[in-house]
Amino acid sequence: MRGIVGWGVHLPHRRLDRSQIAAVAGGGGGKGTRTVASYDEDSTTMAVAAARAALRGVDEPVRGLWLATTSPPYVDKSNATAVHAALRLDRSVPAFDAAGSVRSTVGALFAAIAGRCGVVVAASDVRVGRPGGPDESAGADAAAAVLLGDGDHAPVLAEVVGVGSATEEFLDRWRVPGDPASRVWEERFGETKYVPLGLEALKVALGQAAVEADAVDALVIAGLHERACSSVATKSGVATERIVDRLAATVGNPGAAQPLLLLAAALEKAKPGQTIVLLVLSDGADAVVLRTTDALASYQPASPVESQIATGSPVSYGRYLAWRGMLPVEPPRRPEPARPSASAAGRSGDWKFGLSTAQGVLAEQRGTVTTFTVDKLAYSPSPPVVFAVVDFDDGERLPVEVTDVDADEVQIGMRVEMTFRRLFTADGIANYFWKARPLREDR
Amino acid sequence: MASHGIRDRVAIVGMGCTRFAEHFDKSADDLMREATTEAFAGAGVTKDDVDAYWLGTAQSGMSGITLARPLQLEGKPVTRVENYCATGSEALRQAAYAVASGAYDVAMAVGVEKVKDSGYQGLNAFPIPNDGTQRSLTAAAMFSMVAPAYAKRYGVPEDEMRTVLARIASKNHANGARNPKAQFRREMSVEQICGMPAVAGGLSVFDCAGVADGSAAAVVVRAEDAHRHTDKPLLIKALSFVAGNGSGLEDPGYDYTYFPEVAASAADAYAQAGITDPRAELAMAEVHDCFTTTELVLMEDLGFSARGTAWKEVLAGTFDRDGELPVNPDGGLKSFGHPVGASGLRMLYEAWLQLRGEAPEERRISTFGQRSLALTHNLGGYPGEMVSFVGIVGTD
User: Fold this and answer.
1) Residue among A334, A375, A432 minimizing CB distance to B141
2) Is B127 in Cβ contact with A340 (below 8 Å)?
3) Residues contacting residue A99 through CB under 8 Å, at least 6 positions apart
4) Structure pTM?
5) ipTM value of the model?
């Protein structure tokens, strides 16, 4: 039996109220909120957060890692290796990028289904867009990860019982690398392509699983063509109330992360013995049919989607634009940090990426703020720097930056957990290390 | 193994110090020439009479050539030293030991820093290639953590703590106002300082050392040769230095209310000098008031006040120029300014003026004529990870 043995999701702490957009951009926006990656997050750091959540408490030896994204911090250099290092995976475990399109996520998932067991598939995306444009308001930043196994170690929670694909080359949405937003062909054209492709892939997968459409308990339809997703849902033969909510009102569409995010949301609501279908529309269509097992009843996701949706804090539109580089605000009048040394970082990988000392792994511990300060003078990509002396529950101490917090929110005695972040970027190098962040959810 | 010191074996016979200021129109070369000219004249020597030089500079030069070139020294050994903000004191320490060893008859310690050519406010460390996990916090923020920690440990109310720190800054401004070589020469009331906006923790810019360019220099000789140069030499009683190992940053027992490196270097210095009651024996102290919180804690680490009592003594005026033990009568880092490599020697310059009765009347310490010892304390680094120098000089 091959299937999902664990999953994890990361929704960034900050939320943009779309109604703020029109006043500044002159149009666009809309109702609801979208998630916003903090200035110190990127697709790699968010993938680490989601993968950590997927692995937490699951006794499954990891034998492979896939990282899918349309927003990789690097090209030529692999991004999955940083995730590998932050997860402290064994060096014998391969780590691969699947970058470029939303379909990369399905590709990684299919590779994991077909390959060795014990594979983490992490999908992560930072979705930008031009101010006032549809990509900006519809998009989201998020990551989600699933861990696939054979049931030899951790019990399978949802077995893969069918897959199906349909592929066709056509031009619906395209983005030149480096551009903030995609360009799209007339919406109706894409819809006429996606609807038959989606129904075809769904039919193949359901046939393989020997399940009728009306027996599907939850249908996840992911993809950047929202209208095509709705059309396929209507024509799928699955009852409307069994179509999984695409979280547009609270999260938005996190591109490559959307398939696994919505699948996680569906799994968190599912009961044992149910059929869940993931259908992804992205230059073709791919479907995976899953059958939940009895083990699902006793599985506790480390960081449920619903509780993460409920715990965010607002970010102003101006600050959002500054974080994404769309509003070039005055930088701090301090020298920019020097680039980190590749060889020095290479020697301290356990510390820099794994936050491990001879005493233990601080990354997996919680701590308490013993004292703190707010530094309005220090260089930061988003001043001020909030800095705390953190005493961990096992007795170790670390003076460290605090993130996902407002300066007036931090206090002595605050409980924190560790999060993998990009401290700054110098000479194109994403300087990754760990920060503390307030423990907001009961995980 | 023991720290024996060189008590009474080496004397300071000439000193010089530039005004500390934003010397946009002067180079490090200009500043070094000015400070050394004054020191040479005071000791009655020429540059050729000095056998060896030590140059303390943190970021204004990399080698002895930084001094040899502007002074056009011929065939002299010049050693550049650097030890964070205690660099100037380190230069003195090396020069004094060189004379005590018998290797040289006359040595000179020079400190200089040209910080205002960087184009940025504050001090900016020269980046050493690293793994990118180092703290990026300013020194102000690191030292700001002392204030709430001290207040909590000793039950000082928050607004009272603000007043204590402002009182320290106000005292140093009052002293600097009477010093023509100080960077800031304006008195600041406690009320004015309390009203300043915080920039790092609870600290405002008026809790921080002035950032200035400057240079200072000292000529040292064997004690028995001192009277060939001056009638009023300062004898070196103690030179102590401790480099912390950084364990305070990771020690959950460390509470940011004291600096163990300072206490250790003070204990060593008092032992070298034979001092048992520093508060009663010292005529004055120049301490490293990089931030007001630092000066507060130093009063306890240096043994001037019992633990948890310095804040009351600050309010009582114990460390005012006319108090029981004047601290930073020249204005300190706060008001005199802090050109990193020069500060340690600038502190000694004030001891030179005060103990020899050369400080002007309006800045004279209350203890003048009654006590003959002065302490200089110079630190570099941060709470939990610092270097500390304590030196003691005297006229007897």
Assistant:
1) A375
2) no
3) A67, A68, A69, A70, A72, A75, A79
4) 0.93
5) 0.89
